[in-house]
Each structure stands twice: as C-alpha cells, then as structure tokens.
From TrEMBL:
<feature type="transmembrane region" description="Helical">
    <location>
        <begin position="70"/>
        <end position="89"/>
    </location>
</feature>
<feature type="domain" description="Major facilitator superfamily (MFS) profile">
    <location>
        <begin position="1"/>
        <end position="384"/>
    </location>
</feature>
<feature type="transmembrane region" description="Helical">
    <location>
        <begin position="126"/>
        <end position="148"/>
    </location>
</feature>
<dbReference type="InterPro" id="IPR011701">
    <property type="entry name" value="MFS"/>
</dbReference>
<dbReference type="InterPro" id="IPR036259">
    <property type="entry name" value="MFS_trans_sf"/>
</dbReference>
<feature type="transmembrane region" description="Helical">
    <location>
        <begin position="154"/>
        <end position="175"/>
    </location>
</feature>
<dbReference type="InterPro" id="IPR020846">
    <property type="entry name" value="MFS_dom"/>
</dbReference>
<keyword id="KW-0472">Membrane</keyword>
<dbReference type="InterPro" id="IPR051788">
    <property type="entry name" value="MFS_Transporter"/>
</dbReference>
<feature type="transmembrane region" description="Helical">
    <location>
        <begin position="41"/>
        <end position="63"/>
    </location>
</feature>
<keyword id="KW-0812">Transmembrane</keyword>
<protein>
    <submittedName>
        <fullName>Fucose permease</fullName>
    </submittedName>
</protein>
<feature type="transmembrane region" description="Helical">
    <location>
        <begin position="327"/>
        <end position="349"/>
    </location>
</feature>
<feature type="transmembrane region" description="Helical">
    <location>
        <begin position="298"/>
        <end position="320"/>
    </location>
</feature>
<feature type="transmembrane region" description="Helical">
    <location>
        <begin position="209"/>
        <end position="233"/>
    </location>
</feature>
<feature type="transmembrane region" description="Helical">
    <location>
        <begin position="95"/>
        <end position="114"/>
    </location>
</feature>
<keyword id="KW-1133">Transmembrane helix</keyword>
Amino acid sequence: MIPWRNGVLALYLGSGLLLSTLVSRLPSVRDALGLSHGEVGLLLLCMTAGSFASVSVSGFVVMRLGSKRTLVLAASLAAVSLGMVGLAAAGMHSLLLTGTALGLMGAGNAAWNVSSNVQGAAMERALGVPIMPVLHGFFSVGTVLGAAAGALGAALHLPISWHFALMSVAVLAIIHTGTRTFRPDASNVGSGHSNKSLLADAWREPRTMLLGVLVLGMALAEGAAGDWVALALSDGYGAINSVGAIGYGVFVTAMTLARLGGGFVLARLGRVVVIRISAASTLAGLLLFVFGPSMHTAFAALVFWGLGVALSFPVAMTAASDDPMRAAARVSVVSTIGYGAFLGGPPLLGLLADAVGLLHALGYVGILVAVSFFLAPAAGPRKAAAVPEPATNTTEH
C-alpha cells in the first residue's frame, strides 16, 4: 500500500513540476519568439484549447484503457511536449510549432489530471482515509519546486531548449517509476453498460452537474488569483512588481498548506462542511482583497483566499468518484465543466476589468463562489454501486 501511495504522490508532484517549469520560463519563450503580452496570451490559448478538448473525452479513454495506462500515455505526451516547446521556441523560433507543442502539452496534461484523480480516488477508497487533498498538495509542492528551478535556470541564463529538455526527462523518469506501483481500478471493468452510455448518463445526472458548477465557481476563484493577483496588487494598491510576486507566493503557500493538512480536516468535518467553509473563506478573502483599506489587509485576504480554494477541487473529485464503476465518466464531466473557468475566465475578467477596474472585476468572482457555497450538499457521500473484483480486469497491468 505504501509504494502505491508514494507512486501516486510522485505523479501529482510531477504534474505540478511540469506546469510550473513552463510558467516560470514564459518570459524566455516570449523573448525567443519576439511576442507581445497579448500574443503570449493567444499562444497560451493553444494549451488551454488542447486541455479542454482532451478533458472532454478523457473519461472515455480511461474507461477503455484503465487509469494506469491512460496516465502513462497522457503524462508522457505532456512531458515530451514540454521539450518540444523549448526546441520549437528557442531552437527553431517557430510560432506555429510552439503553439502545436503547447496544444499537445495541454491535451496530455488534461488526460493526466483525469486519470490521476481516478487512480487517486481508488487509492483513497482502499486506504479508507481522505488523502485526495494531500495528493493535490503534492501538485502544489511540485509547482513550487518547478518555479524555483525556473528561477535558477533564468538566473544562470540556461537556454529554455536545454531547461525544458532536462525537466522533460526528469518528469518522464517520475512517471515511469511511479506508475510501476499502481494498482488496477474498476474504471474499465465491464458493467453491462457501454462507455458511451456511461458518459452520456454522467452528463444527465443532476448531482454530477451540480458538482461541476460547484467546481466551476471555485476554479474561477483559483484561476483568477493565478492570473490577476500580482497585477491587481500593482494596479489597485500601488505595489511594485516584486511585491506583486510575493503576494502570489502568499496565496500559493496558503493553498499548499491547506491541502497538505486537508485530510485531517475532512476526516472530522466531512465534505459538505469543508466545502461550505472553503467557499466562505474564499468569498471573505475576495471581498477583503477588493475592498480592504491597505496592503496589509490585502495580504491577509490572500491567505483566506488561498486557504479557501485549496480543498474544493480535490473534495469534488472524491465525490465524483464515489462509485468506482462510474468514476472515470463523472470525473471527466466535472473536470470538463471546471476547465470552462480556466478557458473563459481570464479573457472575461480582462474585459470586465476594462469596464470597472481590475479589483472590482475580481469581486464579481464572488457571485459564483457564493453559488458554490449553496451547492455544497452535492458533495455529500452517496451509496456506491457494487464493485467487481479488480482481478477480473485484464486490460490494465
């Protein structure tokens, strides 16, 4: 059981490491291609589009191949694509190839997320303790490590073609070492229903759709912090750029700590109460950040904001995976709806900021967070269907 747990933790860490490597060296990608800020945003839409297209079919793939095999293929695609980004941008100076590589990286990463959540939920059921927040906490730890490596690479003027290639190899090693310990899950065991039928049913289930809307609101709050907090501190509070970066670091640190300790809280309070506390903390942080009188209150707000958004996504993934037979389909649906926040949130907030100012635009995110608060009962436990013995699974080894 311990090797299985460590392998899953390693895969979550590798996912964070991969994404933060790209984000931390985006200025170098921009310089290599000679892009403006707006053009960088459009380039990143290639990755978002790839993610959105992939996550919508990932449940079907997991049900067909099993979470382990899907994870190996998808994570390997994402890791190799990172190396391709560095080569296309710095080696070939090709905008088209860079965008293509980012699209492939987004597609691989989205399927990686769905399959790792299905595998993580299977392990959580086997352990009998809520470990999903810790898994997502290791993702956050990976982002911190990747950002530190990115800062070091930039300081040493390491070309991104070399940096991305090295990190690609490192993540591939994590993937193929960690997945050796994975166990079969019930996501691709025959149940008398076709995979298409299971997916179609998931899109019609009220509880699954409510979980998706719940995740949508909290994912928008999380994404808004990643995209706009540093700029909002600069524009709204007159902070210099370095202070804006520190502010984002405070948010990420609070989120990471909450995830690492989230299992303890979940075991005592349950999902519904945790979701309500999370939404309330997020809403309080947002409003204090928007309307607070000083930089000190803004930083305090970021702590509440980070603590609030930390547990909602992992708790929703656990809730969507209550029935092992339908876990892949439901996780795919909930993730697809949640990804809508990351796809449409940044441009919509940018347009709203032009009209009302960035700080006040962030305040409108609180409306969806309030909706998530009232949808918390959807995350409550449900009776799982009978699960066939994993030994009958002959398609995943």
